[in-house]
Amino acid sequence: MNFINPIEILELQNENPHSLSFEKIKRAKKRLYADIELSDNGNLNYKGIILTKTDCEKAIENLENPQLIDFYYHLCISKLLNDYLVNQDENIFYHFKYESIYKDEKFINFVSPFFSYNFGKSILKAYKNEDSDLMSRVLLTRLLINKEDTHKGLKILANEISQRIEQVQDIIENINDNDNIYKDKYFEELFFRIRKLFPSDLLNQLPPYYLSQINLIALTINNLQISIWNNYGLTEVPMKLLKLVLELNIESVNKPVFLKNYEIIRNKHAQEKEYEKNEPILKKWASLLVSLKEQNEQIEERQLNSKEAFSNISVLISINELNNLSSFANEIRNQIAISLRNMAIKSCNKQNDIKTAINFINYALKITVSKEVNQLLQKDKNDIMELERKYIGIITCYFCGNNPTDNESGLITKFYKEISRGGFIQRTVQYSQSEITFPRCNNCKKTHEIAKNITYFFIISFAIFGFIVGSTMNSKEGFFYAFLGAVIGTGLGYIIKFIYLAAKSVKDCSKSRLLDHPLTPEILKQGWSFEQPNP
After folding, report:
1. Quick one: which of 161, 343, 474, 531 has the most CB atoms within 10 Å?
2. Within 249-303, where are the H helices?
3. Helix ranges restricted to H, 407-477
């Protein structure tokens, strides 16, 4: 739509508009047509625009309206506005001044159809060139557009923005449909492309007419970063894209979602940067995690004794060093603590080693872990300690109170139960006999055997010594001194035995000691006794 000022093409600028007569217009029109006919191409060059005779005739017809004559004459004076209407000369934006005629609704309705069209092209130009200064200047002149032409003036840029949104939607579809075909560099370049497609400083200047589109831009960019995150696990580009979203002046219910997504991605990106910085340290602890997993499997398969495994762990893991690592190691700390917990459970379930299981849990509790992991460890510890109290002497060896019991190392003890008694002249008694096994660890079994051998050694040694001494004194005294030596040896043997057991922190296996065993009360309650009934 071209604007033609008939006063200019008729060269009547210097005439008084109030004295402009039909005759003057007619003479000027005749002169104009003659010039057109004499021209080389039969047209008129008007400020760089080629006009035909018909174009000129239509423009001149507007002078039949006296009010329009005033408006055309005003535009002859206001050259910047006139030239912008004619050929989109943008000098008006750099020298724009408010004029009182702009209050005249009829004047605005007169220029609006032409101004709005050029306005749309100017705002599109500013957007494409990322010219924030020109954009702000163009928007200042919106007062020259009436309500009816507002859509026409703004839709040109709206169409451009819609096309750019569709471009991004196509990119999202390609990313989702083509797994792992794009390299990191592609996404770095993509960010700059998105920033160029949707410059925030320009979008934020736009009037409310564009608000729904700006909200859609934000949603589309958010969907793009989600697609990149989900398909490629990248954080830097999604973080930058979300930052671009948050730079926009958006009024959307999705804004809290954008903020939350930004915080999540930013934290994840910071963790990645921290990981890259501390990668050698993390590799060390990751290697330890692999070792813990292997030892856990060995404990389950009974290829590794749980006590030996715990001894290894206390050497491998420096609690102070682990806890002194910064927040980048939070997940590593949690995983190590959970691995120790798993080893505790395997020690308890597969090797009946409750003491070592508790040691594993206590060691894990020294690690600075999350609240959730700490609560899990405390619960497991309470469960294992309750198990220890419930099955003391059965799962954990009663004699040392430390090692798990062993099926091949139980202490077999004879028990007797009286059935009946009878007889007046010669008393008789009937009873049952049973062998009951008290659970015991292999270590305590060996200790008890050594202690018993110590006693036998002293008895036999002193008996032989007494026999030799007695025989040298008197051949008839040998057996007496042998007996005396055996008595002395028995006493010394028992003393040495108890000293040895005390040194080993192992209870003796005498009947008096077994009276204190957790299993004994129930056995005695059923009528059994250590002593064989006498008639």
Report:
1. 343
2. 255-277, 279-300
3. 442-473
